[in-house]
Design brief:
The chain is mostly helical and about 100 residues long. It contains five helices and no strands. About 15% of the residues are buried. The mean pLDDT is about 95.
Length: about 100
């Protein structure tokens, strides 16, 4: 939960929740701005994938990775995704990277 909190508290503001049911509702509803909704969904996907990889590494004998490193890894994935979308010229999702940077302060 620490990783999710660090990554999304600034992005979601008053909509932030660590409760699973509330989170699922937030992901499927269209109550958020389309750019925020896209970022939240992508952060959710990247976080789940990263945590699953970490779980598998631990099961196979690797040392645990600190939460700060996991957060940095997901942050890098989000930045790369935003840059690739900007390069495609999608007007609906423009300024994703700026929104992401603003939410991480």
């Amino acid at each position: 939960m620490a990783a999710w909190t660090k990554l999304t508290r600034g992005l979601l503001g008053s909509h932030f929740s660590a409760d699973w049911d509330s989170l699922i509702l937030l992901l499927v509803n269209n109550t958020l701005d389309c750019r925020v909704r896209f970022l939240v969904r992508f952060v959710f996907q990247a976080t789940i994938h990263t945590l699953w990889r970490e779980r598998n590494k631990r099961r196979h004998g690797s040392n645990p990775m600190p939460t700060a490193l996991l957060v940095r890894f997901v942050d890098r994935q989000v930045k790369n995704k935003c840059l690739s979308i900007d390069a495609m010229g999608n007007n609906r999702l423009e300024a994703l990277l700026q929104l992401w940077f603003a939410s991480q302060e």
